């Protein structure tokens, strides 16, 4: 077991924060219906809870559709 699972399942607020951080535009309830998204949100919530406030700044938005299409040209990023 990894260290971030020690504290148990994430709260609904933590899952909602993870959903917002992921940039997904669907509702939390719909995201949790998908086993893959539910797992990803739980992992994201756990990772976000391990980050100390002020230690992480995200300065660019990741375009996941471009990444999925292997479009890694930096001219448009």
In words, what does this structure look like?
The structure is a single chain. The protein is mainly alpha-helical. It has a domain at 12-51. It has four helices and no strands. The model is unreliable at 1-6 (pLDDT under 50).
In short:
With 77 residues, the chain is mainly alpha-helical. Helix content is 49%, strand content 0%.
Keywords, separated by commas or semicolons:
mainly alpha; 77 residues; globular
Structural class: mainly alpha
The biggest beta sheet, please? none
Enumerate how many helices there are, as a single number.
Answer: 4
The run of helices and strands is HHHH
Low-confidence stretches: 1-6
Quaternary status: single chain
Strand content: under 5%
Share of helical residues: 40-55%
End-to-end Cα distance: 37 Å
Rg for CA atoms? 14 Å
- Summarize model confidence as the mean pLDDT: 78
What is the secondary structure topology, with strand pairs?
Layout (H helix, E strand, L loop, with lengths): L11 H11 L5 H6 L1 H16 L13 H5 L9
